[in-house]
Design goal:
By secondary structure, the protein is of the alpha/beta class. The protein is built from 15 helices and 11 strands. It folds into 2 domains: about 5-160, 3-Layer(aba) Sandwich (Rossmann fold), CATH 3.40.50; about 165-270 and about 310-390, RNA polymerase sigma factor, region 2, helix turn helix motif (Rna Polymerase Sigma Factor, Chain: A, Orthogonal Bundle). The strands form 2 sheets. It has a 7-stranded parallel β-sheet with strand order 4-3-2-1-5-6-7, sandwiched between helices. Strands 9-8-10-11 form a 4-stranded mixed β-sheet, with helices on one face. Bound molecules: magnesium ion.
Length: about 400
């Protein structure tokens, strides 16, 4: 993906100025944990949250960044509760110029959902080092982001644990010798369940994830395996591989974070206890590896590592992932937007669990495909799919 190693070398000896977008979410707080652990080499210069005002103020007090931003203008924030050296921006109007500021080295893009696309685009356009946790950016606009990256010299490092693992395993060989990449999936809380059983899943059940502690959207996506579908698409664009070079295996222990298979049959993986701070830190320190605040593997304990083929009938979202990775164009924007709205409607008890994927499939089938959309056309596709996803109801869906 990046030719990167030489270009990032310059950062190693200087304190890295980091902006964290989505700083109060799960990836955001883990990013701050990493920054907190390395005060000698990392500095938080800006933090943006959507509407968690109190948490954002706490972060401002601890890290004294140059600025903090509360994106949602409807949410009140008390400017007297942040340090006087820290500028407060209420509303996201100034975000673009703050990201583009010459003092900013690195942007951690950890806003949830398609809302993260715009800021990721600006960071790539400005030629920054981008630690990308917002997989939707690549799902929606992978080809144009990669094209712009090549033009501006921006560096994109994956934060998603699977993609970080692939990125690390790819260091073991040459791109032209790569046969396939194999994404691991925990299988979520409904591994082993049948298609029929999925109809009775409630939001409360879906929000319990066995191995990863994450926000509600991604937790539901893990339960439907739509998260893995999005990761298939993300991998397609991040590593520039064809959809038939990507496989998925279910690995409930979430210790092996993904595999890369080379043409000689060698399979290389990256393993570690499930903790997002490791891939976040590697995205910030590559090519260096430094001590990490995350847990080490306990080699004194027996461990079992299981691998299963995924059940595509019980988790049809995976088929959508492969389909969209193959077709590209507007498909990623459509699938992502339809799924986002469907997940919200499921959490509001408006639709059934299995209908999340069903709605996404229907909208994908009915959309007007464009193979080479512009960013504006992708935004339009996103808006159209959201409207469609609100229109579907239990009566119009097959049971
Ligand atoms: Mg992941």
């Amino acid at each position: 993906m990046n030719s990167g190693r030489a270009a990032v070398q310059t950062l190693v000896n200087n304190s890295q100025a980091i902006v964290v977008l989505g700083s109060t979410g799960s990836i955001g707080t883990s990013s701050l944990d990493v920054i907190r652990s390395h005060p000698d080499r990392m500095r938080l210069v800006g933090a943006m949250a959507h509407r968690s005002a109190d948490a954002l103020c706490q972060q401002a007090l601890e890290f004294c960044p140059d600025w903090v931003m509360l994106a949602d203008e409807q949410t009140a924030i008390d400017s007297s509760s942040i340090p006087s050296e820290t500028r407060l921006h209420h509303g996201s109007g100034a975000l673009e110029s703050l990201i583009r500021h010459e003092d900013v080295d690195t942007v951690v893009s950890a806003v949830v959902g398609a809302a993260g696309l715009e800021s990721t685009w600006v960071a790539v356009d400005a030629g920054k080092r981008v630690a990308i946790a917002n997989k939707e950016s690549l799902v929606v606009a992978g080809p144009i982001i990669q094209q712009r990256r090549a033009e501006t010299g921006a560096l994109i490092f994956p934060v998603d644990s699977e993609h970080s693992a692939i990125f690390q395993a790819l260091e073991a060989g040459r791109k032209q010798d790569l046969r396939r990449i194999i994404l691991t999936a925990s299988g979520g809380p409904f591994r082993g369940w049948t298609k029929e059983q999925m109809k009775d899943v409630t939001p409360e059940m879906a929000l319990q994830h066995p191995t990863w502690k994450m926000g509600p959207k991604i937790t539901v996506d893990s339960a439907t395996m739509m998260n893995k579908a999005l990761e298939i698409i993300e991998a397609r664009w991040l590593f520039d591989v064809e959809s038939d070079q990507i496989s998925v295996v279910v690995h409930p222990q979430s210790f092996i974070h993904s595999f890369v298979e080379y043409r000689d049959g060698s399979v290389i993986s990256q393993m570690s206890p499930p903790d997002m701070r490791l891939p976040i830190q590697y995205a910030l320190t590559f090519p260096e590896r430094i001590d990490c605040p995350c847990h080490d593997t306990d080699w004194t304990q027996p461990a079992t590592m299981e691998l299963f083929p995924p059940d595509l009938d019980a988790f049809p979202a995976l088929r959508l992932g492969f389909e969209v990775a193959r077709t590209g164009g507007t498909s990623g924007a459509i699938l992502n937007a339809a799924n986002e709205v469907a997940v919200e409607r499921f959490l509001n008890h408006e639709i059934r669990f299995d209908q999340i994927t069903q709605i996404s499939q229907e909208i994908l089938n009915n959309h007007t495909f464009d193979a080479h959309p512009s960013l504006d056309q992708l935004h339009a596709a996103d808006r159209w799919a959201r409207k469609e996803a609100l229109r579907w109801n239990s009566q119009t869906l097959k049971t």
